[in-house]
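Standup notes
- DV: blocked on the single-chain target, sequence here:
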Amino acid sequence: AMQVGLYELDFHVGDYFATLGVAQTEPRFLDVVTVRFGIADDRAHLHVPLLVSPYGYSTYRGS
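- DV (later): unblocked, structure below
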């Protein structure tokens, strides 16, 4: 279980898209997407979804 506190996830989206063969600019517009979030309830069941394209992303608190 995760403890109450602040956390950070680094999504290496540039490498992900390169592996898929997706054309990207150099330098990449998005290379690493960092999501910082807090957990206030160590009993909660959470997801941190990331919707991503080579030029944008969205994230939210999932359940």
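- Follow-up: The first strand starts at residue 5 and ends at 11.
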